[in-house]
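Human: We require from you a protein record containing the residue sequence and its fold in token form, and nothing else.

Assistant:
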Amino acid sequence: MKKAFVMILLCLGIFSFAFPRDIFEIAKDGTPEEMKAAIESGADIEARADKGWTPLHFATFNTNPEVITTLITAGVRKKQGNIAALKEPIESKTHLLA
């Protein structure tokens, strides 16, 4: 039983290493350390998600001030308007939180 449990934990560790979180997931609920690591490994801080949102949009929408500060310190452009996304009702943005 213990061997099976250890194998499951090992597989989960390998799975999470093979499929790291993307910059948008980190912006939503990650830590500043995770964001710094993503940036250092080459993540694009100006990347755009489906609706044109950037990591800064995700961090701001999800009230993640430490990650916002990390992104700004890293040099993210603060004026990246997406007027179409801002005009949509908030209910249509709930898919971004999933």
Observations:
- The first helix runs from residue 2 to 18.
- The chain has one domain: 21-97.
